[in-house]
Amino acid sequence: MGILTDIYNTVAKFFRPQEEDASKSVATNRLKLVLMQDRTNLTPKILEQMRSELIDLLSRYVEMDKELLELNFEQEGDQVALMLSIPVIRAKDEEEIEEALKQRVAECEEESSEQDNSENNAEADTEDNANNEIKSENDSEQSQLVSAPEGMSSTKQEDCIKDECHSEN
Amino acid sequence: MTGRVIVITSGKGGVGKTTTSANIGTALAKDGYKVVLIDTDLGLRNLDLLLGLENRIVYTIVDVIEERCKLKQALVKDKKNPNLSLLAAAQTRDKTAVNAEQLKEICDTLKEENDFVLVDCPAGIEQGFQNAVAGASEAIVVTTPEMSAIRDADRIIGLLEAKEEIKSYKLLLNRVRPSLIKSNEMMSVDDVVEILSCPLVGIIPEDTGIITSTNKGEPIVNDENALAGKAYRNVAQRILGEEVPFLDLDEPKGFMAKIKNAFAKLKAKV
After folding, report:
1. CB within 8 Å: B195 and A34
2. Interface of chain A against chain B, CB under 8 Å?
3. pLDDT for A14-48, tens place per residue?
4. Residues A2 and A68 in one domain
5. B4-269 — its CATH code?
6. What confidence tens digit (pLDDT) does each residue in A58-106 have?
7. Which candidate in B147, B161, B185 is best for mutational testing of the A interface (most A CBs within 10 A)?
8. Are the C-beta atoms of residues B1 and B108 closer than 8 Å to each other?
9. DSSP B90
10. The domain containing residue A22 runs over which residues?
11. In whole angstroms, what is the distance from residue A101 CA to residue A56 CA?
């Protein structure tokens, strides 16, 4: 019987689903992610925001498959690494990049003049606005990602650039 | 003499803190060391049951703190081993009956006359945990290879790291089921150690003998044949500073497998 079960096990190994399907690796992966969130205080919301801002930034330079972009944490010993995996469709040529950058500068200027006008408002007020923007951005994100597979979605970029202008000013 | 004060903690309940305390304490006492076990789980005391001492308790830790008795009077000697004694928790009071300073004082007094003071910590990260940790300089974090227990252990490790008094902490992986690990249905020891990045002090296999030993009020380390008992005895040896290899839990049991194993070992040697 021993020999038979050994043979069975060896043969069955070839047909058995690979390790990734076993519940152990599901648990390990879920646990790793949740521990990173626990340890760093990064909430899923913040991670999603980080992801969308990275998409905006990188899509100025490359055309990529946004659906497949992965943002993960990996741990090696005590070190925690942020791993970003981007399926690149093609790199943009210089003209396109320049155009995107120009657009960004223009939008920045536009924003800053707008900001000058509203500078009289209390600082706390603008902070509140920024938070609201982030919220609405997250809400509409899914659909934007799906509906605009190529190039940038302009509304989202504005949001992102707004933040950048903020820090530049 | 200045003994070592080790807190046995976990975060999550039901992973085997009390069983671990009882067994490590008994194993160390069997080796001739003087050991005191302190149950700090006020209101939910159980260490007395696992040791079979529930009928001998006259005074508790709260009686000591509220000065109704002397510390020595409250120590209950083990039935078999005079080296081992228990300071029981009060069953009728809650965690607020004791504070961290008082517990530290008790630990400091006890370590003068004992080789080991083992503090059985309650579940949770609130005052009960803070109290239990207060007097300790070492910690053993008990966890099982389950997500919820590991997450809580990670939290506890974070809290222990922040405590200056805790000089070292180690992981004890309890209730390991080699057959489930083999079929990839349970996280392996390596997985857990990698995730928590914490040194191991022991791997305890799931053992039905634990249930019968609890029923009888006799720690499983007293059973020479039980695998879990052997694993706990090894933990005690490691605490004493000896290098003991971890038990090979998934050693194949069939006849053919044994022959295969022997061949593999031969091959490795050649």
Report:
1. no
2. 2-3, 5-6, 19, 22-25, 27-28, 30-32, 34-35, 38-39, 75, 77-78
3. 655 554 467 888 888 888 888 887 887 777 788 88
4. no
5. 3.40.50.300
6. 888 888 888 888 777 776 666 777 788 888 888 888 888 888 888 888 8
7. B147
8. no
9. P
10. 1-40
11. 12
